[in-house]
Write a structure and sequence with these properties.
By secondary structure, this protein is of the alpha/beta class. The chain is built from 5 helices and 11 strands; from the N terminus they run βββαβαββαβαββββα. It has one domain: Dihydrofolate Reductase, subunit A.
Length: about 180
């Protein structure tokens, strides 16, 4: 399991129910990194998708407390345990956390790495921020792209590795039930 996100200099990720910026080159990169995989999002992220349409070529999962929630092209789960049980059945490299802020924070301990696009800008009035991985001892920078010049915003891509991944308790249960 891993997560992918773009952040500004303050690790802000959104404002008013949307991304801070729709960076065209980063959206293309996101598509490349997630195509053919399972993507997990919260309800607010679902609501921010254009036309609230499922991302093509991916298995789309929405985590929501709303038991009545349903949307074409999306599977729905209602608890962290349901997500972890589902993730236990999928190759960890094929299970992607794609937001929003609460979802990133909840599943960060279970992620073995994070792909972060760091936008070289600070945006006014963000209302969604995530924890700066540079401030967490268990996360270390594994790779950095260097500066990418972009007509919208200069940015860089960074891969962080979690040195203390929290074990998914459902992986052990699944292995025991298969024995």
């Amino acid at each position: 399991m891993f997560y992918i996100v773009n952040v500004d200099r303050n690790w802000a990720i959104g404002a008013a129910g949307d991304m801070l910026v729709h960076l065209k080159s980063d959206l293309k990169f996101f598509k490349e990194q997630t195509m053919g995989k399972t993507v997990l999002m919260g309800r607010k992220t679902y609501q921010s998708l254009p036309g609230q349409q499922a991302l093509p070529g991916r298995r789309n999962i929405v985590l929501t407390r709303n038991k009545d929630f349903a949307a074409d092209g999306f599977e729905t789960v209602h608890s962290v345990d349901q997500v972890l049980a589902l993730a236990a059945t999928i190759d960890p490299d094929d299970f992607v956390i794609m937001g929003g802020a609460n979802i990133y924070e909840t599943f960060r301990p279970y992620c073995d790495h994070a792909i972060i696009t760091k936008i070289h800008a600070t945006f006014a009035d963000p209302d969604a921020l995530i924890t700066n991985l540079d401030h967490l001892e268990e996360w270390e920078m594994e790779w950095r792209s260097g500066l990418i010049h972009d007509p919208q915003y200069d940015h860089e891509r960074v891969i962080y590795r979690n040195r203390q991944v929290k074990p998914n308790p459902f992986v052990k249960r699944l292995k025991q039930s298969q024995e």
